[in-house]
């Protein structure tokens, strides 16, 4: 039963990530919205046939859904708003959290940053309580974040990122051999958009796999590296007036 409940939770997460509502799934399954809500409220009531239809609507393979559910069972996928607020409010805690997600060990954090051993242990214990890590004997650190981990949309961390990080991150011409910025524009359907979102998520997983494969290297051979990927239905504000004109023309033809 626990596995079924986790599968349902993962399914809800994937629907939310793709902007799909219960009413969308109701149309796919030819059910009422209330019936769909009851299906999602009872972990053991969704048949494989219905699950396959829902996955098809999300452009998500069933095998990928099962894989994500398995990862979510073992690892943390999201913090609560209060937990995110705790991270933002405590700069030292946020620093330690960033370090450990980048693969730093206890002694490496002490070596690079002006933190006492006592304070560092306190912050690691705090992250252990948040279930971000497991603090093991001899101050060894086991990260417990899932590859599908995501911040709350519009939450404290995302707001902090938008206010404090984006401007600094993009203050470069991306001309170095360790930099890359590409922007592509085109007309795309929602199903194709969702397929690309899946590819982006897989790329994020590959990013962390590459970081893990470099763990055996020294800190001198590794460098702090960040990757930002963004995708949404969006047009340049400069063309808003033309969008409105096109919309008016369409309505007048109806």
Automatic annotation (TrEMBL):
Species: Enterovibrio qingdaonensis
Domain HTH cro/C1-type: 11-65
Entry-linked Pfam families: HTH_3
Gene3D superfamilies: lambda repressor-like DNA-binding domains (1.10.260.40)
Stated name of the protein: Helix-turn-helix transcriptional regulator
Domain of life from the UniProt record: Bacteria
Lineage: Bacteria, Pseudomonadati, Pseudomonadota, Gammaproteobacteria, Vibrionales
